[in-house]
Amino acid sequence: AQIALEQGYEARREFDARYRVVMSNVDDAVVFVSVQSGRIEDANKQAAAVLGLKPDALTGVSFASLFSDRSVAELTESLMNATLSDDATPVTVVTSRTRQEVGLYPVLFRASGQRVLMCRLVGSHDKPVVDGAS
Amino acid sequence: AQIALEQGYEARREFDARYRVVMSNVDDAVVFVSVQSGRIEDANKQAAAVLGLKPDALTGVSFASLFSDRSVAELTESLMNATLSDDATPVTVVTSRTRQEVGLYPVLFRASGQRVLMCRLVGSHDKPVVDGAS
Q1: B11 within some domain
Q2: Which residues in chain A are contacts of B24 at CB distance < 8 A?
């Protein structure tokens, strides 16, 4: 039993290490959001750069609070609907801090019995959103 | 103690789930290679597509065997040297199956006491390598 426990511990550390390395080194900006709470479970520095925040400032934050004109309920519903559609149409939002238009590409999965959304954030880097006549 | 074990188990499943979702859904082609053995520990379907193989055909395979004219020792040395340089110059290789020029961008890390290279594979999709007069 002790060996099995140690193997489990080693396997967890292996996944943990690989997870952190892949999050840090891919091009994609990635955020994990709890469906139940709407809060960010984890995000990489690429996502933080798109959102205009430091990476360690993102964990635990309400995902919807980072975007203009979106309530938590609205954003979650939009993201869940997007995961049901076959085409890869993003949910388009505007970041509160950097006023950039960003496309959110969500994938729904379960972890430890909880529903989680992995969202890729794809910025339109050279298209700042102009505050219009609204 | 039982609660701690269950929490450890849950945490491992959580990392495991996140790891698999991020590997499957990022744009990057990613391969994990053991430094000691030169064999692939894990790879995503994006990497399999670049290499012209099925994803489940990659695990356990010698990474160097997927490229022309590279011994395991040569490829490992080139990748390790690339992790030491400051600039992001890739190790350029030619795939055995698809004859495509691919840039390997390696990152070195430790997992469970073993050195592992995470390699991103960046293909030059529209530049097939012509078998020359060599």
Answers
A1: no
A2: 107
ipTM (interface predicted TM): 0.82
At A131, phi and psi to the nearest 5?
-70, 115
The pLDDT tens digits of the residues spanning B37-78 come to 999 999 999 999 999 999 889 999 999 999 997 899 999 999
The parent domain of residue A48 ranges over 28-128
CATH code of residue A62: 3.30.450.20
Give the percent of chain A with pLDDT over 70. Answer: 84
Q: Give the number of domains in chain B.
A: 1
What residue type is assigned to position A24 of the chain? S
Angle among Cα A25, A29, A34 to the nearest 5 degrees reads 115
Structural tokens at position B36 = 């000691």
Which of A21, A27, A122 should one mutate to test binding to chain B, selecting the residue with the greatest count of B CBs within 10 A?
A21
Hey, is the C-beta of B7 within 8 angstroms of any chain A C-beta?
no
